Amino acid sequence: MNIYVINGPNINLLGTREPEIYGRETLEGIAIDCKEKASKDGHIVKFMQSNYEGEIVEWIQEAIMQKVDAIVINAAAYTHTSIAIHDALKSYSGYKVELHISNPHLRESFRHVSFISPAVDAVIAGLGAEGYGHVVDLLSELPIKVN
Amino acid sequence: MSNSKLLIINGPGLSDLSSDNVTANEDLSLSGIEQKCIETSGEFGLEVDFRQNDDESELLSGLINDINNFDAFIINPAALSKSSVINYDAFSSAISEISNQSKPVIEVRIENIFKRNVSKPLQVPESGLGFIGGLGKHGYVLAIRSINKKLSNQ
């Protein structure tokens, strides 16, 4: 299975940005963990991060064209603003999971609305940095969906 | 950590038991979910108590009475979160108490509740409540793995 893990703005600051909320794990650490977990069973993870909305849209379009099997997306702050990412995800027919390190529904009210949630299969939040590894593990165990 | 105890409670009606999830074609009976939870917990040596109750008061008093008797919690509120304010508040304070004791607690929904806006997630500010929705019975598996990891890191 081919899995894209796509991360949005400010996630490159993980480990130093408000560690009381997001933890001390760095994005590089998470990426290595996901890739190692996946490769044990012959799955491939491509791990990406961008601060630019359009670049995230292009990666989703690339996933559509390359017939990637699953997308895990942490759109970070774009979660609450981006109709463009919502639209791109709507056009993608593989497994799609929205992930957040913290639980946005327990935080400021402007984080309670997600434009991503209605466009994905599943939402996972508040499991910390380890949520990434758990999701990659689970997706690897699912049967491949024709898309 | 072996012999940790996990309480899984499922709310009234389990009304979000639908086919609208990642693995739509799988068996989604409550007994099937219970079996999966017992298997997954067993792999980690976790003791599991799996409950479902259509009576909100009984479900709540069961949770409140057992906060001190378990090390981790999975809650599927099902139809509960849409109903009485009194029960919702009692539920929230139970989750706060669990978090205050630094015990893992995760809300699991079978379907993606945001797709059709059928239900809202639990909102307990300043708690450590996790959320998993839309993965069918696999959501419980993921929750148990996450809980096991958290308990072993403690």
Would you write up a description of this structure?
The complex is a heterodimer of chains A (147) and B (154). Chain A is of the alpha/beta class and 147 residues long. Chain A has helices spanning 19-22, 27-40, 53-65, 83-90, 130-141; strands at 2-7, 44-49, 70-74, 95-100, 122-125. Chain A is 35% helix and 18% strand. Chain A has a five-stranded parallel beta sheet, sandwiched between helices. In chain A, β3 (70-74), α4 and β4 form a beta-alpha-beta unit. The longest helix of chain A has 14 residues, at 27-40. Chain A is globular, with a radius of gyration of 14 Å. The model of chain A has no long low-confidence stretch (mean pLDDT 95). Helix content of chain B is 37%, strand content 17%. Chain B is an alpha/beta fold and 154 residues long. In chain B, α2 (56-66) packs parallel to α3. Chain B has helices at 30-43, 56-66, 85-100, 138-153, and strands spanning 5-10, 47-52, 72-76, 105-109, 130-133. Chain B is globular, with a radius of gyration of 14 Å. In chain B, α1 links the parallel β1 and β2. Chain B has one domain: Dehydroquinase, class II (Rossmann fold). The chains are: A alpha/beta (147), B alpha/beta (154). β5 of chain A pairs antiparallel with β5 of chain B.
Mean pLDDT across every amino acid position of chain A = 95
Major sheet attributes of chain B: 5 strands, parallel
Overall mean pLDDT of chain B stands at 87
Poorly predicted runs of 5 or more residues of chain B: none
* Helix residue percentage of chain A: 25-40%
Main interface: chain pair and counts = A-B, 25 and 29 residues
The CATH H-level superfamily of chain A is Dehydroquinase, class II
Distance between the termini of chain B: 9 Å
Count of the separate structural domains of chain B: 1
Order of helices and strands of chain A: EHHEHEHEEH
Task: State the domain count of chain A.
Answer: 1
Strand order of the largest sheet of chain B: 2-1-3-4-5
Query: How many runs of DSSP E, i.e. beta strands of chain A?
Result: 5
